[in-house]
Amino acid sequence: MRESRFLTDGMLGKLTRWLRMLGHDVEYTGSTDDKELIKKAKEENRILLTRDVELYRQSVAKGVEAFLIDNPNQTANLANLAKRFNFKLEVSMEASRCPKCNSKIRAVPKASIADKIPSSTSSNYDEFWQCQGCGQIYWRGAHWKRIEKTLTEAKKATMP
Length: 160
Prior knowledge:
alpha/beta, Rossmann fold, four-stranded parallel beta sheet, three-stranded antiparallel beta sheet
């Protein structure tokens, strides 16, 4: 996978989480002004993702690689980004990052986190991952089918 590092503006929280799950290093900025966003993207060699047409234009004019997110549909946006930046629309738990804080996640034995998860979760699932930054615990729960469905639809949208 090509190592694309992104910077997203405050309007792209959901997309940020998706990209992190897909293994991308994504810095999310809640309320930073345009000038600071452009400066940060340039200094950290990140691709700026934004819904703001003016910010997009300013970025490109200042030599920052940027991509305008102009579709309200999350699946379409994932497909467009995958096509543009040549990455797979698959979650690899070895590469995935924490959707909340952007740190790497790693597999952990169930016994090491059993006291931190509901007993029903412990009895229904065997594979767990934990964020090395914030400590959040993940497993392929009921939501996993929705994640796979979205990624399958996005893959179809990338086909010619």
